[in-house]
Design goal:
Order of helices and strands: HH
Number of strands: 0
Low-confidence stretches: none
Distance between the termini: 18 Å
Mean pLDDT: 93
Structural class: mainly alpha
Helix content: 55-70%
Length: 59
Amino acid sequence: MDEDELPPIDEALVRELDKRFPAKYPELTTPEREVWYRAGQRALVDYLIEHFRKQTEDD
């Protein structure tokens, strides 16, 4: 498997992760550590969405 290849990504999983970890701005009162933690969660979701799109375009 190529370094950029992933196993098939399920659309339902991508949709659910997108709902559970939405892209939103933090409140000004949110601790910095939590901001970075949530940013990491969202970065993974965005990564999976991008690879899902690539996989569905290849079909």
